[in-house]
Amino acid sequence: MASLHVLANPARFRRFSQRVLPALSVVTALALAVGLWLALIESPPDYQQGETVRIMFIHVPSAWLSMMGYGLLAALGASLLVWRHPLAALMARGAAPVGAVFAAVCLLTGSLWGRPMWGTYWVWDARLTSMLLLFFLYLGHIALSRAYDDSERGDRAAAILALVGVINLPVIKFSVDWWNTLHQPASVMKLGGPSIDPSILTPLLVMAVALLLLFIVLVMLRTETEIDRRRLEAAEMAL
Amino acid sequence: MTGFSALLARDLRLVWRRPGDVMVVLAFFVVATVLFPLGIGPETNLLARIAAGILWCAALFAALLSLERLFAADYEDGALDLLLLAPWPLELAALAKCLAHWIVTGLPLALLAPLMGLLFGLSGEALWAVAATLLVGTPALSLIGGLAAALTLGARRGGALLALLALPLCVPTLIFGAGAVEAVAIGEGFLTHLAILGALALLSLATLPWAIAAALRQAGE
Amino acid sequence: MVNHTPFIVGAYIVALLGFGGLVIASLVARRRIKRELSARGLSGERVRR
Questions:
Q1: Could you list the residue range(s) of the whole structural domain that residue B162 is in?
Q2: Is the complex ipTM higher than 0.95?
Q3: What is the pLDDT of residues B10-35, one digit of tens each?
Q4: Total structural domains in chain B?
Q5: In this complex, does chain A touch chain B, defined as having at least 3 beta-carbon pairs under 8 Å apart?
Q6: B148 to chain A: nearest residue by CA?
Q7: C-alpha C27 chain-centroid distance
Q8: Top-confidence range, A6-15, B73-82, C25-34
């Protein structure tokens, strides 16, 4: 835990990040290469869903990571409001667009998966609808944090929003689930199909790890930028 | 408790002096509701099916309209700073303001909506469902909206941002509120939905005043 | 049965554009801010003790 507190200092984080990021990026690229090879070439087509299962290898990890990303925003928000960690605000600013992009990729790949599977580009199933709402929550966080001339005010407002949002997320998921089961059409198609075959599990997990590494790399990179941007702001105000 | 009732009385008195503010919101609700049949067509079966959703969405938008001014007037004339320094908890002040908002917005909407429901061919138990669910559901909307208003005090594009923040959080209330009328249509009662709406209202009550107070505090800094 | 290949290709292109675009945008922003900082003489490499 002591190391985490060390990192809470923006300057220290910046030094840490600059040391670690190049190597981590290489590892990420390798992981992505392996994952993509497994996903596209090595794994056989699923006997039920055919080749389209390959879309799952991006769609599912993106969903996981966008949800994890929002949890991160909430944790950073708490960190900012309760312990006033100076890095928390800057990392939240950097991380929010990353989570939003993962959510968007999840939605778009889900849509492209839906067309061959159920014949329609958008399916109001519980998961996609919840993900759409999560995407809106991300947009709100991004917009709110940048809506004030005083950046710190924006940071704290977004932090409150993230905490309220994270409590709301299970409620939203519950309500959308309920709404969806009630309105499900006669021909029920269950997302995800039967239990996951090992030949599907391996590429999925590898892609999940690779995309997680990508997430981390992006957050670190963007946090560095936010640290510098805040220093620039401080310098401009001192003039 | 004196602070709570004092603040509530003050806000209600302010609205009493300018009833036009409330009337505009209700008028918007009526106009917005009427637009839908005009846009969709007068087929009675279709209208009866979508009535609940339309009434609830229109109520949501109407409630949002009046939220921007919830804290803005106090923020501008310095009354918010006084509230921050007052001896009573800021959470109670936040609650008082949301309650005032509900009394002048949610409550009238809950009473007006069944009348609009008649235009959509709803009858009997469905109308009761509309009224009851709006009555129980709109307090949560006032609290969520109050949070969005506090978070966007003094922000650029405050009005649009407020809606962007509030609407996703209002989705659970919307789903169960509108769903109640559908439940009536298929023969089930709407009591389960009402109970869930009540639970959502209690959850909002238990968490949001603190969030609103936190937002007000850092608006005042 | 609809041919699945365009959708699979499409999905991977979406991922490439989305993630790749984000990586590029983040790198560009990083570079721009760094340049502005060093232009003001705050290279960011000096550490005040």
A1: 2-220
A2: no
A3: 888 888 888 888 899 999 999 999 99
A4: 1
A5: yes
A6: A161
A7: 5
A8: C25-34
